[in-house]
Amino acid sequence: MDHDRDTETTDFGYREVPRGAKARLVRGVFDSVAGRYDLMNDLMSGGLHRLWKRYALELSGVRRGQRVLDLAGGTGDLAALLSRRVGQEGLVLLADINEAMLRRGRERLVDHGLVGNVEYLLADAERLPLASDQLDCISIGFGLRNVTDKDAALAEMHRVLRPGGRCLVLEFSRPVVPGLKPLYDWYSFRILPLMGRVVARDPDSYRYLAESIRRHPDQETLRAMMETAGFERCQYYNLAGGIVAVHRGFKL
Fold this sequence. Notes:
two-stranded antiparallel ribbon, globular, Rossmann fold, 48% helix
């Protein structure tokens, strides 16, 4: 019930906020950073995020003519890759809950000539306005950690996939290489907010993004959550020493 969402709390970075308020707060973060989001991604990862997205694309197994959803697709990096992969016979739905990010994604894809096989959907991952059993693949890149009810979002992804379809979750995770965590923490909480201040003029949003990574489920927990949502043959693949992981599950 809505009453429950207003009285229960959830994480917004290291703060606890009413469940009903998180989506609005996250929207404020991405309204603020949308204009410099792509530049900041390149600076923060040294361009590695592009390689991580290409790796996720290869794991997706997407083929020409298929129908795919890039959920929380933001400024369209994954959608652009998927659009080229499915061809004009296929369809990519680029969906995001944030209008400013979705507008930026549309502008970028049109600028790159990716038209005709991409549609845009302003949508909440927890309540997808799509029929069941219709998509071949769903990707969500660096978006699941910002969703209030991750279990509901995973269940929705499972619902709209057709049997044989697969889900790819590309997300920050837990470092597994010895000695990496303290270096990563130093970078996340000292350097990222500084970049946010200098480049995006918004250190608070980048501090939230660093905190949200720490509150996100680790590799094994997320795999178990996908299995609970109904996905089978769930696996994950660590990248950058576990700083990033790609989870994949199938609807059988």
